[in-house]
């Protein structure tokens, strides 16, 4: 049979690489450390852009700038600040598309914040484009 009938297809999965920031840890960094983190993000973005794995990246504002909306018994309440009191908060994310969870973990380890903070690797299970 012709090889056209037997195509190997690469299954590609989207992963969210969530950067969890601990401000107490960040405050202990030297200016050289901070500069290295920022330069590291530039290198990481270049690397995963060139490989075609980057879909999107965003940095988020401070938790104090957020609002939490709840609907209880039909009534809306809005409170300022973070949802929970915690040392760590979600500082930003990279949305990537890669062949495996193992590759997503490799990419997460390349994020410079991993040296001081946590990077969570979570698969995307549903996407609705605009």
What is the element layout, followed by pairings?
Layout: E1 13-21, H1 23-27, H2 31-50, E2 54-59, E3 67-72, E4 75-80, E5 89-98, H3 101-110, E6 118-123
Antiparallel strand pairs: 1-5, 1-6, 2-5, 3-4
Kindly describe this structure.
The chain contains 3 helices and 6 strands; from the N terminus they run E-H-H-E-E-E-E-H-E. It is of the alpha+beta class and 130 residues long. Strand 3 and strand 4 form a beta hairpin. The longest helix is centred in the N-terminal third of the chain and has 20 residues. The chain is flat, with a radius of gyration of 19 Å.
Q: What integer value in Å does the Rg equal?
A: 19 Å
| Largest sheet features | 4 strands, antiparallel
Please estimate the helix content: 25-40%
Helix count from the secondary structure assignment: 3
Subunit organisation of the chains? single chain
Distance between the termini: 42 Å
Helical/strand content category: alpha+beta
Helix/strand order, N-terminal first: EHHEEEEHE
Number of strands: 6
Summarize the structure.
This protein has 130 residues and is of the alpha+beta class.
Tags for this model:
alpha+beta; 6 strands; 27% helix; disordered N terminus
């Amino acid at each position: 049979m012709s090889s056209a009938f037997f195509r190997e297809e690469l299954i590609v999965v989207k992963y969210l690489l969530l950067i969890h920031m601990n401000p107490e840890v960040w405050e202990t960094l030297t200016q050289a450390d901070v500069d290295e983190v920022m330069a590291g993000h530039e290198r990481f973005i270049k690397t995963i852009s060139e490989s075609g794995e980057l879909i999107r990246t965003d940095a988020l504002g401070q938790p104090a700038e957020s609002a939490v909306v709840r609907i209880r018994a039909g009534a809306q309440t809005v409170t300022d600040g973070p949802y929970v009191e915690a040392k760590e908060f979600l500082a930003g994310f990279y949305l990537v598309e890669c062949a495996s969870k193992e590759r997503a973990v490799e990419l997460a380890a390349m994020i410079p914040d991993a040296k001081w903070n946590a990077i969570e690797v979570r698969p995307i299970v549903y996407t609705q484009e605009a």
